[in-house]
Design brief:
- The protein is an alpha/beta fold.
- It has helices at about 5-20, 45-70, 90-95, 115, 125, 150, 170-185, 200-215, 225-230, 230-245, 260-275, 290-304, and strands spanning about 20-25, 75-80, 105-110, 135-140, 190-200, 255.
- Strands 1-6-5-2-4-3 form a six-stranded mixed beta sheet, with helices on both faces.
- The protein is globular.
- The structure holds adenosine-5'-triphosphate and magnesium ion.
- Magnesium ion binds near residues 84, 222 and 225.
């Protein structure tokens, strides 16, 4: 089997697992159709099996990343959004565990600094976009501008926007600008793939309690997270509207069930594999003249 055919087989296999969670077009999207506890046909007893699949997936991912890096044409941007304690950090850590750190960069976007507030909202993310041949990971992103800022519209006041630009249609405008950015990236060979880790309110409560009760996890707890939990329904509406407005074929959303970490990680790894395998990656072909030079070099080394 040629290597292109092998990669196509990998892509097809990955797509079989991710299909129920991939949103290519948002018009009919409803969050309530998605169950945070979903594990497809897998049962808790399959957890070990899923961990083996994840390990195999991480290896496949590392091989694809090696070609991405060598070919140096495509870039890949992975965006992670979620409520607190949904497992963003863990998913990023596990999924990226096998890949070459030289070819990957992670950026976390927190509440904007005063310097960042001096700029348009895409600025800080734009300057962190991945180079060709690299995987860039955004732990939170410009999508916060349609989530936390929408749930707390008073934050707009701190953004130093001209007053006449703060109006009711601002969220629609932001979706339009984000769609334009992502289309631009797709047209420039930067593949965008977005994850919403969908945790239930009940499971978030369990994880917060665990953080409070286990001294080794205390550092993960922040009272601000509890405050945001009070706005759960508003956040869910904002997430739903975000996906409805920004899911496209070239920059799909994956709504990943996040109540079971083992399943979340498997779906995320598989979706990243799917994205890489869809790019038609191949190692650069060496010029026939260079092949001759390589042959001469090999002979000379052997002889010496
Ligand atoms: P962890 O808590 O696991 O370290 P985190 O991503 O939750 O990771 P925090 O230090 O808690 O990191 O800070 C992130 C906070 O910054 C979130 O509450 C998020 O909503 C907020 N934030 C991110 N982008 C923006 C933005 N553009 N405007 C306002 N707040 C933002
Ligand atoms: Mg936090």
């Amino acid at each position: 089997m040629s290597s292109a055919m092998k990669i196509e087989a990998i892509r097809r296999q990955a797509a079989d697992l991710t299909r129920p969670f991939r949103i290519n077009s948002g018009s009919k999207f409803r969050l309530k159709d998605f169950d945070p506890g979903d594990t497809l046909h897998m049962k808790p007893g399959d957890k070990l099996h899923a961990k083996e699949d994840l390990a195999a997936g991480v290896e496949t991912l590392a091989r694809l990343q090696d070609i991405l890096y060598a070919q140096d044409r495509w870039g890949v941007l992975l965006i992670f959004q979620a409520m607190d304690a949904a497992g963003k950090d863990g998913a990023i850590k596990h999924v990226m565990s096998g890949i070459n750190p030289q070819g990957c960069e992670v950026y976390s976007f927190k509440a904007p600094s005063s310097q960042e507030l001096n700029h348009d909202f895409l600025w800080r993310c734009f300057r962190s976009l991945p180079q060709r041949g690299r995987i860039g990971i955004f732990n939170r992103s410009y999508y916060e501008e349609t989530l936390v800022v929408r749930v707390h519209p008073e934050l707009l006041g701190g953004q130093r926007l001209p007053e006449e630009l703060i109006h009711k249609r601002i969220w629609k405008d932001r979706f339009q600008d984000i769609r334009a950015l992502e289309r631009y990236l797709a047209r420039n060979g930067i593949a965008v793939c977005k994850f919403f880790l969908h945790v239930s309110r009940k499971e978030q409560k369990r994880r917060f309690l665990e953080r409070l009760e286990n001294p080794d996890k205390n550092w993960k707890f922040s009272p601000a997270d509890l405050h945001e939990r009070g706005y759960w329904d508003e956040y869910m509406e904002a997430y739903e509207d975000m996906i409805r407005n920004t899911a496209t074929k070239h920059a799909p959303w994956y709504v990943v069930p996040a109540d079971n970490k083992w399943f979340t990680r498997l779906v995320v790894a598989t979706a990243v594999i799917e994205t890489l395998a869809s790019l038609g990656l191949q190692y650069p072909k060496v010029d026939p003249k260079v092949v001759k030079d390589l042959e001469a070099a090999r002979k000379s080394l052997r002889g010496g």
